[in-house]
Amino acid sequence: MEKKDINIKYGKILRIYRKKNNLTLEKVSEISGLAPRYISQIERGESIGSISTLLNLCNAYKITPNDILLSFLEPENLSTKDSYDYKINQLSIRDKEIIDDLLEFLLSH
Prior knowledge:
By secondary structure, the chain is mainly α.
C-alpha cells in the first residue's frame, strides 16, 4: 500500500470513529486541543500527524492506537483476541457500554 493510500485510509478510519461517537470537528478540537482544520486535514489524508496527535485523537474517541492500526492488517493475520478487539472497537461508545454491561452480567452469574 502506498503512503498516500495509507494516509487516506487512516483519515477515513478516524472520521468513522469521530462520527460513531457523534462528535463534530469542533468538539474533537475542544477535547484534543487540535485545531478543527488540522483534524479535517488528517481525515482527508492530507496530513497524518505525530504520535502525540494520534494519542490525542484516540483519547477523544475513547479508543486505542491499536484500534486504528488493526485496520491495516489482513483479517487472517489477526489473533482471536485482536479480531474481537477490532470488532468491538468499531462500535459506538454507547454500544461498547452495553457490551461491557452484558459481560459484567455474565461474569457475575
